[in-house]
Amino acid sequence: MIAMKMMEQELELLEIIASKLDRISSQLDARKTGVELDRLYTVEEAASHLNVPRSWIYKATSSNKIAYSKVGKYVRFKLSDLEGLVVRDKPETE
After folding, report:
1. Pair 81, 90: CB distance under 8 Å
2. Which of 36, 42, 58, 92 is the most exposed place for a label (fewest CB within 10 A)?
């Protein structure tokens, strides 16, 4: 029973890693083709990219934890800022 649960957790982690590798691969491809990586992302796109609920994005925005721009009344995010958030929150290893 415990071994089965560990296998499920490992599978979930592998799926997360595969998803992140796909995202990195597409970003590298975009750089090679000259696609602008700093296009503005919506709240929904930012939440999807970070794999967090939209409510987390709104809270992070209101507490200035995440950089954002306003286009009229709409909140937008640069991919580089989203990636910076991931790198900044990464725990340090010894």
Report:
1. no
2. 92
Question: Alpha carbon 34 to chain centroid distance?
Answer: 21
Span 34-70, pLDDT tens digits: 555 568 999 999 999 899 999 999 999 999 988 999 9
CATH class, range 36-94: mainly alpha
Torsion of CA 89, 47, 10, 15, to 10 degrees: -120
Q: Are 29 and 22 in contact (CB under 8 A)?
A: no
C-alpha 78/C-alpha 46 separation (Å) is 9
DSSP state of 90: S
Mean pLDDT for the stretch of residues 57-86: 89
DSSP three-state, residue 40: strand
Q: Which residue has the tokens 């995440």?
A: 66
Give the pTM.
0.55
